[in-house]
Amino acid sequence: MTTNPKGxxxxxxxxxxxxxxxAFAAGCTSAPKQLPExxxxxxxxxxxxxxxxTTRPVYAGPWEDPSNPLYQRTIYFDYxxxxxxxxxxxxxxxxxxxxxxxxGVKATLEGHTDERGTREYNLAxxxxxxxxxxxxxxxxxxxxxxxxxxxxxxxxxxNPGHSEQAWRLNRRVVIQY
Amino acid sequence: MPRYQRRxxxxxxxxxxxxxxxLGFGAGPxxxxxNIEVTGGVEAAQPIAVVPFGVSDGLIPxxxxxxxISADLARTGRFRPMPTRDMLDMPARHEDVDLxxxxxxxxxxxxxxxxxxxxxxxRVSFILYDAFRGDQLASSTLVSTKAGMRNxxxxxxxxxxxxLTGQRGVAATRIAYVTATGQGEGQTVTxxxxxxDGYEPQTIVSSGEPIMxxxxxxxxxxxxxxxxxxxxxxxxxxxLASGRRELVASHPxxxxxxxxxxxxxxxxxTLSKDGNPDIYVLDxxxxxxxxxxDHFAIDTEPSWSPDGQQIIFTSDRxxxxxxxxxxxxGGPAQRISSEGDYNARASYAPDGxxxxxxxxxxxxxxxxxxxxxxxxxxxxxxxxxxxxPSFAPNGSMVIYxxxxxxxxxxxxxxxxxxxxxxxxxxxxxxxxxxxxPFIK
Lengths: 177, 440
What we know:
Chain A is α+β, with helices and mostly antiparallel strands and about 180 residues long. Chain A has helices spanning about 15-25, 90-100, 120-140, 165-170; strands at about 75, 105-110, 145-155, 170-175. Chain B has 2 domains: about 10-25 and about 175-435, 6 Propeller (Neuraminidase), CATH 2.120.10; about 35-165, TolB, N-terminal domain (Rossmann fold, 3-Layer(aba) Sandwich), CATH 3.40.50.10070. In chain B, strands 2, 3, 4, 5, 6 and 7 form a 6-stranded mixed β-sheet that branches. In chain B, strands 1-30-29-28-27 form a 5-stranded antiparallel β-sheet, with no helix packed on it.
């Protein structure tokens, strides 16, 4: 079973700011900061009047290209926590920078959990995970109206297994464009 | 105070269209039903003989009433019905009964009965005997439609059960549950309501998106649930008889954990529209929405005390999920779970003196029962991922979700250790059971 130092538990507002400060301080992260390729925002369907529409447009975007840093759209969490691991800060900053530049693009932050514990608690935990990412991105300059959150709790596992092998893949936030 | 806003009618229209799928009333025989196995605890059970009911000439009743009653009584864990093949005689009338025969076979109680035509329906009469004392403990005649014959049998079971145990029976109650087949995008999730013995399943709603957290109204006529059919969580309240439903919560963020107040007028729920999962109460008539908790931790899974005065809920405000209690109008919350580092999804027993919950023991998620007077916890299950416990309305049993053979199934455990059952479908997962209240 995963150990989870409770003192480090993500508390939605405070922790992302701490993490952010850490990110700016450099040295906290080992991965080189990559700048996303400048991308012209594609005028996709006017999403303003259809907030529930998540049908993917024919044109996808740079996140579909495996050679683009935006390709990595999933970050993973430890058990029963919404704390963002430092190793995922570069990924999130890449997406934040892209969204900050391309103000016509919207993203849904999809929070998920593993199957352990109760379904409604996990729905809330998935919400907190998505919210942690949202706050981090807003602090990183993304206008709030470009971001929405959606928790699926444990209802949509990436891997349906009942082992830690599966669970670690299921505790995640996916950035959906 | 924030007020609930009705969503534009486009959503309601969508709901009505989608609901067309859900009108599975009359549940054809092809529909998957729950199979029930009694998995133990029959040692202390009382022997009883339920003799196959007599029928008038030429009549072929649609249901073997005695078999349904025997199965109902066996499932309680408190009775051990005699197999028909062991019966030496099958009386259907009082004048044909010789109770000495049955006492020699070790039967404490005997049930006989008859089915007669009554217009387009049936008239079902029965007598319950105390075989040793020679008394008639109960006798009655019930009028039934053809379609209502199983229900009539369940009502007879409940009369027998109450007469012999002093406790109201639950054979004529129902169970709501969620089934899932397939994975990911190809998944079909269905909310069903079936009789307590798994028969007569009725589809409430079916979707390719998750459906969660069914909760009964106290009159047993409506079910609230969470559906992602619009690609995000929303709470609906649906009337079972008509299929009419209403979208009651579709705020940004999560809309979860619906729980009817004991008077049926309010719905407690979890919303994260204000930035964090907190408990709210929606007045179903006035649409006033009141926020009960305001904490940066997770607050969810509200459950009302039977008198409606208090709400218990799950919160990780102390660093791990634990059960807290507050007044049903909000105010300070006190932690009431003490043992263990994961306690969640608690609900009150019908008498309000204990709660059932999910508790983690050595890394295993199990169903626990906490005696509120003594603070004492005991375990009712022994799986590793058990969840969603729900009390039978007479407090005798708890139904919950578990994994058996790698597959999601339901199980029921009796509170006094009497009997256990397993409920499964031939294929797919079954989860999130909610036992109905008594149905009038």
